[in-house]
Amino acid sequence: MAGSEASFVSALLVTPSPTEEEIVSMHRFIENALDLLLKGNAKSYHYLIQQLTLIPAPIATRRKIFRALPRCISTMAREPRAYRTLLDVLFKFDLLASGDPQEVDDYTSFIVHLVSSNTVYVVPTLHMLVRNMRRPQVKELSPELRALAEDRAKQATRGQKNCC
Question: Domain segments of the chain: what residues?
Answer without folding.
Answer: 15-133
